[in-house]
Amino acid sequence: MPLAHARVAAVLAAVLAVPSVLAPGLGPARAQEAAAVDEMPVGVSVNGRMLPDPGLLVLRQGRMFVRRSDFEAWGLMLQAAPGEQVLNGESYVPLDDVKGLSARLDDDGATLHVTADASLFPRLTMEPDHRRVPVAAAIPAQFLAYDLTLSRWSGDTQLSGLVDTGFSGEWGVATSSFLVGGSGSSRLSASRLETSVRRDFPERRMRLVVGDAVGRGAPWSRPVRYGGLFLGTDFSLDPQAVNYPLPMISGSAITPSTIELLSESSRRSLDVGPGAFDLALQPRLNGAGQVTMSVRDLAGNVRQVTRSFYASPNLLRPGLSEFAFEAGALRRGFGYDSFDYGPVFAAAGLRRGISGSLTLEGRVEISGATRMAGLGGSVVLASLGEVSVSGAVSQGRAGTGTLVRASAQRITPAYTISASYERADAGFRQVGESRFNGGGRSEMVVAGGLSLGAWGSINASYARLRQGVGGDAPTRFDLASAYYSTNLAGAYLSAGVQYTRRLHDRRAGEFDGGNSRSLGLFGSLTIPLGPRRHVSAIAEQRRAAVTFDQNLPEGTGVGLRALAGIDHGAPWLEGGVAYRSGIGDLRVDAASRRGRQGIQFNARGGALRIDGELMATQHIDEGFALVDVASETPVTVMVENRPRPRKAGVGKPVIVTGLQPYAENHIAIDPSEVSIEAGLDTQAQVVAPGWRQAVRVGFGSAERLGARLRLVDPRGNPVQTGSTFAWNGGSGIVGYDGEVWIEDYAGGGMVLRVTGANGACRVAVPQLSGEARLMASAPVVCIPESEWALAHAGARHQPQLADAVIPRKEPRP
């Protein structure tokens, strides 16, 4: 009999001899004996793939049982099995009771072949990685920004500008802005714009503002300016997060496979294990589109499916909420009166993602004159597009009024179309609205765009606004426009037409009097001349010109602008020159147009003080950093691989502005300017400052630098090459001509102990600075240890002995 057949016969004999191994009530001794006979190791193959570890199999009356732990080790999920039984403390599952699974032993009984449906494997969900960037600790900072313009136009001199001041720290940011102005006939004046204290909580994506703020608003209400309190969600505090629902594509595989996703704007490949999977598409996909998914298994078999999707960033992810609470007094005369506050105002709003295709929103606003509440929602209709509907009701001095609004849009790579309609009756008022005339209003907008591929694109829109509907003096305004744009051998061409019409009549509902119409053509051609220069030609109704522009660089440099043309039959000339330096921008412009001439000077920049360091800078915005570099030679500081105009060195830190708040910013120093002796790590450091907050970035330590010495014995001979030296904090080897390098030079007072073939000696390291620290220009005596105590004691009365430096002597023959 063959060996394989004999093994099968032995197994069957054992099964028949013990027919009730797993039967309830089996005695402990008999159960242990049966277990010793029935449990046998087998190789395991799942869906044609051999597993590295064997499993234990039990045969009973023609049925196969495996341990639950083995079942899970195969990567399969198992709920409660009806025939599950316990043997020797282990839970065994009958394979024929598992739905979606089939199993068989091969002829020699050595391998168990299992075929499992994808539903038995864990479901895999893959979404874009979200790694929250830790915000660096803030250090004290004070700042002042200005944008001032002095102009003289047709004999009238005027000064205007904006000044923004503030200070920040770990507690938050306090700012105050002012509008300044004056003319030749009036004295200079200043109006306060906004003053507030802001505290961000990036870990919760929340912001608290005490002082002047702008309301959040809703699709059916307008934002208002007020002074008071704001507390709400701000997703900009976590810019890496994807807050809208991403389209998902699902599939399954019964063996490890490679998935490839291909869309019009991206290509992505990843590996998955057996089972069902849900894959989120890339965040950059927006609007309608298609994605093709290819699934390739280990045997090379390929399955391919194409799915349509629609993504909208206007929705929130399921379970994600956005709220805002606001209270205070409404601002009046903003920009003119510094402290004119009106009625008390309060509002609360909430948006929440209900599902991957539905987001709901509600908001309530209350002031002394008006009370308003509204509800709305946005829904994605399969792969068709997005529809939003909202409504609001108000009550106040004008009575009770209602507003309804609906919009729809569809965005595709080939075309875009959108439409919206809003209607408010005569009694509807928004908080802060100062409309007193009767009648309602309605607004309809339709827009669309068509991509022509290499031939360019066409865009068109139509808007109709009706005011005073149902009142004594209805007014209607229509605006229609269309334009075409394309690239011509690197140049950009745009041409279009615009039509406007205004209808007005005092007889309600009729529009046949006081009409005005206009039709205009416009066009432009822009030819790039390099990364910062371009020439343009523009033409529109009764006006045409040619311009040359050279934009300002990111660092320091010059910008230019020149224009020549005709405006309503009169010469039209303009010119300007600008200069950008490390402390700001200066610009001079002159113009002559339709018989009037003028010139203006503009200055834009700021001053920033961080941790005691004060410097002028180009602008004050976003985030700041104080960069310390422990290098005797000044080196260039780089942000995102772009050099900054100032260099940093010991005692000369550099202040960097324009950092993106709450996001990764890469700050480095130019490695080509750093000597090896400096021992500085030139790898870019990643920092995330808060908004208008400063952080500290250091490269090396200004207190602990490297130094080069040349050691000689008392007779002036170089210390033997290969000798070792050590100090409190490190060690090294003496090089050629007695030279040593101390990595952590801490100034005078350090003592080196040198050990070599001629014995041990000690060195009192002198105070070194500048080039002397790196050049080893003068030798330093290494005093034998037998004489060190006497020399060191004498140094208390004769300090020059500790820093003994003698002229170099030639070795004696």
3D architecture notes:
Strand 49 (724-727) and strand 50 (730-733) form a beta hairpin. The strands form eight sheets. This protein has a 24-stranded antiparallel barrel. Strands 1, 2, 3, 4, 5, 6, 7 and 8 form an eight-stranded mixed β-sheet that branches. A five-stranded antiparallel β-sheet has the order 50-49-52-53-55. By secondary structure, it is mainly beta. Among the domains are: 39-118, Ubiquitin-like (UB roll) (Roll); 248-311, Outer membrane usher protein (Immunoglobulin-like), CATH 2.60.40; 707-793, Sandwich (Immunoglobulin-like). Residues 1-37 and 794-813 have low confidence and may be disordered. The radius of gyration is 40 Å and the shape is extended. The protein has five helices and 55 strands. It is 6% helix and 56% strand. One of its GO terms (cellular component) is cell outer membrane. One of its GO terms (molecular function) is fimbrial usher porin activity. Pfam families: Usher. Residues 1-23 form the signal peptide. This is Fimbria/pilus outer membrane usher protein.
